[in-house]
Amino acid sequence: MVARDLGEPHRVSSPLELLFDLTFVAAVSQVAGRLAHTVEEGHAGDGLQPFLMVFFAIWWAWMNFTWFASAYETDDVLYRVMTFVQMAGVLLLAAGVSAAFGGDFTTVTFGYLVMRVGLVGMWVRAAIEHPDGRQTALRYAVGVSIVQVFWVSRLALPGGGPTWLFFVLALMDVSVPLIAERPGMTTWHPHHIAERYGLFTIILLGESVLAATNAVQDAVEHGLSGELVTIAMAGLAILFTLWWIYFSEPAGELLAENREWSFVWGYGHYVVFAALAALGAGLEVAVVSAGPHIPAGDRTVVAAVAMPLAVVLVMLAVLHAPLGRQAVRPELIVGTAVLALLATFTAPAVGVAGTLVVIAVLLALLLAAILTRGPSSASRESQPA
C-alpha cells in the first residue's frame, strides 16, 4: 500500500467504491424518511437536530473512506476485507436511525465504531507499507482511535450525555485530518475526488426520487389527482435542474488548481449533502400533502423543499468561488435561492403544487442562464484527467 500518483491519468471510481456507496443508500433512505415523517406531523424542528447528527456520522464515514481510497486504494484482498468491515458498519448504523430520532444513539454509535475500526486498520497498514507517509498515517490512526473512544464513552452518560457534547466530539472528529495532514498532505487525486462527490450527489438525488415515488404510490391508492401529478412533475423538474446545475461546475479542475481549498470544499459538502437529503424528505412530504390531510400546513410543506434547495444553491456558489470562472454569476444563484424562499409565503394562496411549479421555473431560468453563458463545463469535467 503506497501512495498513488496524484496525476494518474484516467483515474475513476473502482467497482469496490461503487459497491461501498450502495450501502449508504439504506442509511440515507432511513434518515430522510424519518425527517419526512416529523415534517408531516408538523414537528420539523424536532426532527432537524437528530437528522443533522445522524447524517454527520453517515457523511463523515463516507468522506474519510473516499479520501483515503483516493490516495491509497490497492484493491487487493486485505483492502477489500477492510472495506467490507466498513460496509457492515454502515448497515448497522442504518438500522439504528429510527432509535436515534428517539434519542437513543447506541446502535448508530456502534455502527460508527465498526466503520472506524476498518478505517484505522487501513491507516495502520499505510503507515507500515508507505514509509514516506508514515507520520501522517499514524496521526490519522491515533487521532481517529482517540476520538472514537470518546464517542463510545459517551454512551455511558445518562441519556448519552448533553447535546453539546455531540457537537464537541464532532468537532474533534473533523479536526483529525487538519492535524494529521500537517507533516504532508496525502496524494489524493483531484478528478477522482470530484467524481466520488458527484456520485454521492447522484445517490442523494436518487433517494429523493425513491422517496417521492413511494409517496406517489401511497397517494395513488387514494385516487390520482391533478394536484398529485403537478407536484410529482414539479419535484422531478427541481431534481433534474439541480443535478444539471451541480455538474455544470468543473470541480476536478477547481481541486487540481486549488489543492489548498480541499478542506473547505470537502467539509462544505456536508451542508450540500445534508440539504440534498433534506430536499428528498421535503419532496416526499409535498407528495403526501396531495392525499389525505396532514398536520403540516402548506407553508411548512413548501418550506421543507425551498429551504434545503436554497442552502444547496448558496453553498455551490461558496464552494466554487475560488475557481473564478463559474458557469453563472454567484449573485444569480443567491438571487434564485432568495426567490425560492420568498415563494413559500405564496403557498397558502397558491397551494403546494402551484408554489413548487414556481420554484421549478426559477431553477429552469437559472439553468438557462448557465447554458447561455457557454458550453456546459460538465462535458470538460467528464474527460479523463
From TrEMBL:
InterPro entries tied to this protein: Low_temperature_requirement_A
Keywords: Membrane, Transmembrane, Transmembrane helix
Pfam families documented for this protein: LtrA
This protein's record includes keyword Metal-binding: no
Segments crossing the lipid bilayer: 51-69, 81-103, 109-128, 228-247, 267-288, 300-319, 339-371
Signal peptide: none
Protein name: Low temperature requirement protein A
